[in-house]
Hints:
This protein is of the alpha/beta class. The chain has helices at residues 23-33, 69-75, 127-131, 155-166, 186-195, 205-212, 227-235, 244-248, 253-269, 277-285; strands at residues 9-15, 40-46, 57-63, 79-85, 97-100, 118-121, 143-148, 171-177, 198-202, 216-220, 240-241.
Amino acid sequence: MILKRNKEKKVLFLYDKFKGSGNGHLSRCKYFSKLFPKNFKFEFVNSKKKFFLKKKYEFGIIDSYKINYQKERKLKKICKKLVTIDDFSKRKFASDIIINYSPLAKKSFYKKKILKTKLFLGSKYNFVLNFTKFEKKRVKHKVKIFVYLGTKKRSHIMNPLIKEIKKRKIFNETFIFGNGKKITSHKKFLKKMRFSDILILSSGVSLQEGISQKKMIFVTFVSQNQKSFYDYYKKKGLIKDIKYFKRFTKFSDSKILKLIKENQKKFVRFNNNNLSRNDFWRKLNA
């Protein structure tokens, strides 16, 4: 146990979720909630909705591009400690803590944007990797593919992918999420991801989930704030660009299976050095 069970404490999560975007913000908040002991109660509020400033919270967690410096100052009046999960927002911050787990995050970016704010920067603060369950899967003679390129419909990327997949019998099942369809439960989303052999992803939160599964991953970035993760994992040799997938499908069945199996060895050598849950919690409370 991290803490003894005491009086129930409240945590406010403010996240972005709009039609066709924002699914990653809510997912990140849910992962972050796993840092807290069991005596904490969570309240998840969409940033586009009004929230009551009369309530009091132990923590306020912001994962939103809609919350600005002025709103943060108001939130500090009801939250003992205010934490912002940031993706290089170009604004001032009033939060007590900023978490930016991009491997490219540096203190210099926040110069003149903060006063007494603590900075938790870099991949060791990647809490998504901490709490994504890994299940080793044995690759057999058929290959299952998981595709998620965000909630928006991206036919210009999706249609050529599906065309290539259908050409090969070795790809016997394809699971497509997002792409303008109604969002399914996150539990089902992760279950299908674990069940698959190849992942085709955008480099948002789903990429962090995919990295933790040690799969063969083909990636594109659909927004600029995703590019740092794309660049970092590509340099480490853990992902391939989505454009390489067409060439990959031209390989023989035996070579495809061999590459999928060999890919896991890269993850064995990869050390993210991310903080344990206990260490993260201690720093959050310091």
